[in-house]
Amino acid sequence: MNTLSRRMLCIAAAATAWPARAQQGSDKPWPSRPLHVVVPGGPGGVVDVRVRWLVERLTPALGQPVVIDYKAGAGGNIGMAEAARSAPDGHTLVAVHQGTMAINPHLYARPGYDPLADFVPVTRLGVGPLLLAVHPDLPAHSVAQLVQLAKDKPGQLRFGTPGIGTPPHLATMLLLHTAGVTATHAPYKSGAEAVRDLTAGHLDFSIEGFPVQLPQVKAGRLRALAVTGAARVDAVPEVPTIAESGIPGYEYSGWVGLALPAATPKAIVARLYSEIARIYATAEARAWFASLATDPGGQSPEAFATFVRSEHAKWGRFIREAGIKAE
After folding, report:
1. Could you tell me which residue, 110 or 17, shows the higher pLDDT?
2. In terms of domains, do 220 and 264 share one?
3. Are residues 39 and 118 in the same domain?
4. What CATH number corresponds to the domain at position 94?
5. Which of 18, 163, 270, 325 could in theory staple to 75 by disulfide, Cβ–Cβ 3.0 to 4.6 A?
6. Cβ 99 vs Cβ 167: under 8 Å
7. Are residues 292 and 182 in the same domain?
């Protein structure tokens, strides 16, 4: 029997064991050492905020430290490619989102990974709308006024995102495409960096997650114009949706999830999901996500995998129809 066959037999055996084994051939239950969560982006963004909240609660649940590894660059491709090459022993996790799982594969000829083949989805870590905000000096107090400015100054308004293919980028491109206007994109390593430049007046507007934009809005450093979802949110009930602001049919909800390298034993996937589901079922989790205008999500691995495949197909069609390019 060759080495590959023996390894696959060990993986299959481990998948039926409980508790899960950390490594093939090891008698130590999983996890047997600190875990690492690859975040394919910089600190301070929506993905980072959700992962850090979960990590604080996952560490005591698993009995091992859970460390976050930031791997920014290429719209998340660098971090995803590194995670895909990691050993499938349950000690390397990766935070995923629309950009890395459903968008980048359609934008880049060689992203360095296959989202549908290289990973096993664990669960969704929340889904919700983003917030459209402008610098207070911009003479736009509504979406209609922002669109008119973009029409009057084609390509002159500047918006920032964590990079091409990220949820904020796609949400903005969807708005521009639907409204029939253009603007100049400024990519950053994280949403937090983009919003800092927006508050400093170096950008004109941005669509970002509530954890990043809302504190700046409440502090008066940004002006909120609209939310991207289908309905208004309790966190800012006075802020309308983009659809009701003159862009009928517009709707965008961003999501974050957790995945493991392909071939990770099923027992490990199940244990990790069960721990996260328990955390997400608490009143604390419901209150925290509500403050961010976000549905906790908490899909099972099977349901999340089906969701990822549908998102992959959906955004592939949009990218082709809108003619969005990576460069």
Report:
1. 110
2. no
3. yes
4. 3.40.190.150
5. 163
6. yes
7. no
* 122 and 142, same domain (yes or no): no
| Residue that finishes a domain, picked among 245, 265, 300 | 245
> Within a 10 A sphere around the Cβ of 118, how many other Cβ atoms?
18
The verdict on 192 and 259 lying in the same domain is: no
Minimal CA–CA distance to 146: which of 223, 64, 91?
A: 223
254, 167 in Cβ contact below 8 A?
A: yes
**Structure tokens, 256:** 């974050």
* Residues 315, 265 share a domain: yes
Residue with tokens 């002159």: 156
- CA-CA distance, 217 to 234, in Å (whole number)? 15
Greater pLDDT, 15 or 96: 96
Residue 216 lies in a domain: yes
pLDDT band at 4 (very low <50, low <70, confident <90, very high): very low
Q: Is 250 a domain residue?
A: no
Identify whether 327 is part of a domain. Answer: no
C-alpha pair distances (Å), 88 with each of 4, 24, 93, 182, 193: 14, 10, 9, 43, 33
Give me the residues paired with residue 185 across strands: 159
Q: What is the 3-state secondary structure (H, E, C) of 201-218?
A: CCCCEEEECHHHHHHHHH
DSSP assigned state of 243: G
Distance of CA 208 to the CA centre of its chain: 11
208 phi and psi angles, rounded to 5 deg: -145, 175
Q: pLDDT of 278-325, one tens digit each?
A: 999 999 999 999 888 888 878 999 999 999 999 999 999 988 887 877
What pLDDT was estimated at residue 167? Answer: 85
Query: What domain range includes position 191?
Result: 131-245
Q: Up-side HSE of residue 126: CA atoms within 13 Å toward CB?
A: 27
177 versus 157: the higher-pLDDT residue is 157
Q: At what angle do helices 3-15 and 266-280 cross, to 10 degrees?
A: 40
Kind and range of the H or E run holding 136: none
